[in-house]
Specification:
The chain has about 240 residues and is of the alpha+beta class. The chain is built from ten helices and six strands; from the N terminus they run αααααααβααββββαβ. About 40% of the residues lie in helices and about 20% in strands.
Length: about 240
């Protein structure tokens, strides 16, 4: 970089300042992209876009300094890419993705079993099948809750489990790797949800140490659906006895 231009560079540069009140609570659409791709790349790209105003701030400071030392505006425009590169290389801010995730509240995640419960299904037969799936005693209260859920889902729906979790638990930490199983152990929120017309039902049952093969395309953040559980029932999930392993 030209020495005359170099003396106009700021002494300290923080492009990605994250305030303690900054978070991703209203950006679940971006987080859902991360979940789908099993990568934080979409969030990295979004943060880069959001940081544009910071770059403009520093460009304004540099322009003022250039004017003070007698450099022309054309010099700023001619060297814009080099200046932006300098700002990136000398950025002293921390990792904004980590900071934003630290400030973000837990999300309600959903895992689908890819099983559609028909609206005209035989309730008792379906209850027996779900008891076998979740390892529930057919004479237990939990079996009764499953029956009620089937009965109340008047238009049928997709069988799924909901759980409250830090969104970082939904993206595998190692590049090229992914989770192998979905583990249920404890109080689990089970739902039959028809997200096409906003109907269904859900219940909390106790599941003892059941695991299922994991499929990335069956995992999503609930409120990113057209009709998510929160929007249908105005409910919030507090159970968290589901983990990806």
């Amino acid at each position: 970089m030209d020495k005359a231009l170099l003396q106009c560079m700021p002494e300290y540069i923080t492009l990605y300042y994250v305030d303690r009140n900054d978070n991703l609570n209203q950006n679940h659409d971006v987080l859902q992209q991360c979940v789908e791709e099993n990568s934080w790349a979409p969030l990295d790209d979004a943060v880069w876009d959001w940081s544009g105003s910071s770059e403009e701030y520093y460009l304004d400071l540099i322009a003022k300094k250039m004017w003070e030392v007698g450099l022309t505006k054309n010099m700023l425009e001619d060297n814009r890419e080099e200046i932006l590169e300098y700002l990136q290389e000398h950025d002293e801010s921390g990792d904004p993705v980590i900071d934003l995730l630290d400030n973000t509240a837990p999300v309600t995640a959903c895992y689908s079993f890819n099983q559609w419960i028909a609206e005209d299904c035989d309730i008792e037969d379906t209850k027996e099948r779900l008891c076998q799936l979740f390892g529930v005693d057919e004479m237990s209260d939990d079996a009764g809750w499953l029956r009620d859920m089937i009965d109340n889902a008047n238009y049928g729906g997709d069988l799924r489990v909901y759980f409250n979790t830090d969104v970082r638990n939904l993206v595998h930490g190692l590049a090229g790797e992914d989770f192998k199983t979905v583990a249920l152990d404890g109080e689990v929120t089970v739902g039959i949800i028809n997200s096409l017309n906003g109907s269904g039902d859900f219940q909390v049952i106790r599941v003892n140490n059941k695991s299922f093969p994991f499929r990335r395309d069956r995992l999503f953040i609930s409120d990113t659906e057209q009709w998510g559980l929160e929007e249908i029932f105005g409910a919030h999930i507090y159970t968290s006895s589901v983990s990806l392993q």
